[in-house]
């Protein structure tokens, strides 16, 4: 058996100078679906015996082909399930027009549960098969359709956060919640519903609710205040929203909240900026907002494909990392046109290069990341462990540290049946160099054809071989 394991047990991006490649390794996953054992250079018989003694009898020992490797699953920290209906269209608009002309008319259709069921079943399947093992989903404002989304995710075995949009103002009459009270009532019902899916589970459930105030513009102060009250009593409840994506959006936000010194302060003033808040975009933050976000421990979902596609701008990811702000990647469908985190990796790389090119000739910064391109190791980090940190899940996923859940991808970079642009014979290089070469090519020209098997919590749930 020819076995190679790649594992991403990386602690922070600063230490990511090289990959940890273990030739001839086997991986044991215990009955709980957690990683119990990582071994190197040992005989199979011995491994099996040891794992047997450890009680990992239903372990998974994963044999890998020459052109396969194993890596932690991707984490998508921001996407909109209903907007998959619009994927690849609407790129001629900027954010506020795009919402009213393209997005809201589509989202309103999710009042129809048959439509919602058909759409969400194919969306979730597609996201899993792209290698996303944890996903942060926005639904629509509809309670029933968003419950259905959570049910479908649960039945497919994906790890996810699911929220229904809170939006009680500045939206069209046909697509707006009637009051702050109605919005809060529906939110509380969704939380109860999702939590009831796993009521006898002792561990953190796979599918969890997340508060989803769409953005400050669409939420009245009483609604934001009630959401702030709701999270105050529940420290485990994550929050997701949009911030500083587009200049017109920022201008309108400042007009609506003149008492707040910045966009980030709007969320903070309602108690919605904390260590499990996920802020999507953050393209145009001012330095004092970054200070506040770092201080609160909130995370940023970097959505570079969407930021380019809707002409929003280029987020300074290197600066976020140098400031110690948590950063993960988001596909932001359908602002973004791809459901694959691999696409986000590629665009994140280009975005960092744009920042670096624009900074050429200016005074060098003292940090490791600001105004520089992102290394392959940092890109891998953003797609996995960085996302786990943003989701407040770093103890559970994002790498193969013992005790974490086995959320993993078996990736095949062979030219037979997979994506043919990736790899030739598999004989170009050996050992660590080969592994690093395979990883880089996967990140830059891979797609769902290369995702052979997807495991979540130790269970096979997707991939081309599923
Ligand atoms: N801001 C408020 N709603 C949205 C949305 O659906 N997509 C994006 N990209 N930005 C938003
Ligand atoms: Zn979004």
UniProtKB/TrEMBL annotation:
Cofactor(s) in the UniProt record: Zn(2+)
Pathway where it operates: Purine metabolism; guanine degradation; xanthine from guanine: step 1/1
Keywords, sorted A to Z: Hydrolase, Metal-binding, Zinc
Cofactor annotation comment: Binds 1 zinc ion per subunit.
GO molecular function, one term: guanine deaminase activity
Pfam families membership: Amidohydro_1
Catalysis: reaction(s): guanine + H2O + H(+) = xanthine + NH4(+)
Keyword GTP-binding tagged: no
Domain Amidohydrolase-related: 69-461
Keyword Lipoprotein on entry: no
Job description of the protein: Catalyzes the hydrolytic deamination of guanine, producing xanthine and ammonia.
Protein name, entry field: Guanine deaminase
């Amino acid at each position: 058996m020819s076995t190679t394991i790649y594992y991403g047990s990386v602690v922070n991006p600063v230490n990511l100078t090289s990959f940890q490649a273990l030739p001839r390794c086997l991986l044991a996953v215990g009955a709980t679906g957690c990683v119990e054992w990582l071994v190197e250079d040992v005989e199979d018989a011995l491994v099996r015996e040891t794992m047997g003694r450890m009680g990992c009898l239903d372990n998974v020992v994963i044999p890998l082909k020459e052109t396969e490797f194993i890596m932690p699953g991707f984490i998508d920290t921001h996407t909109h399930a209903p907007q998959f209906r619009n994927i690849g269209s609407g790129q001629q608009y900027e954010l506020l027009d795009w919402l009213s002309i393209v997005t809201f008319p589509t989202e309103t259709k999710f009042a129809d549960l048959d439509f919602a069921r058909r759409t969400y079943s194919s969306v979730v399947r597609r996201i899993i098969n792209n290698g996303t093992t944890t996903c942060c989903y926005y639904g629509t404002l509809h309670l029933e359709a968003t419950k259905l989304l959570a049910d479908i995710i649960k039945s497919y075995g994906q790890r996810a956060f699911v929220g229904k949009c809170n939006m009680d103002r500045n939206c069209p009459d046909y697509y707006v919640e009637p009051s702050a009270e109605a919005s809060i009532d529906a939110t509380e019902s969704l939380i109860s519903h999702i939590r009831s899916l796993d009521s006898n589970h002792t561990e953190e459930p796979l599918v969890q609710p997340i508060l989803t105030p769409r953005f400050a513009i669409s939420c009245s102060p009483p609604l934001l205040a009630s959401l702030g009250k709701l999270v105050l009593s529940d420290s485990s409840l994550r929050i997701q929203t949009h911030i500083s994506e587009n200049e017109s959006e920022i201008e309108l936000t400042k007009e609506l909240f003149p008492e707040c010194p910045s966009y980030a302060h709007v969320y903070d003033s309602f108690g919605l900026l904390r260590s499990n808040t996920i802020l999507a975009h953050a393209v145009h933050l001012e330095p004092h907002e970054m200070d506040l976000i770092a201080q609160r421990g909130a995370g940023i979902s970097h959505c570079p494909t969407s930021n380019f596609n809707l002409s929003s701008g280029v987020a300074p990811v290197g600066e976020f990392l140098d400031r110690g702000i948590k950063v993960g990647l988001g596909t932001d469908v359908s602002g973004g046109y791809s459901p694959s985190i691999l696409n986000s990796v590629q665009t994140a790389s280009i975005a960092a290069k744009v920042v670096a090119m624009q900074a050429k000739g200016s005074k060098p910064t003292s940090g490791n990341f600001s105004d520089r391109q992102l290394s392959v190791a940092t890109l891998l980090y953003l797609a996995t462990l960085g996302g786990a940190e943003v989701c407040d899940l770093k103890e559970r996923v994002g790498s193969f540290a013992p005790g974490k859940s086995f959320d993993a991808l078996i990736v095949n970079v062979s030219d037979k049946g997979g994506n043919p642009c990736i790899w030739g014979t598999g004989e170009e290089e050996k050992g660590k160099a080969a592994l690093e070469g395979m990883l880089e090519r996967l990140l830059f020209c891979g797609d769902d054809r290369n995702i052979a098997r997807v495991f979540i919590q130790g269970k096979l749930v997707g991939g081309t071989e599923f």
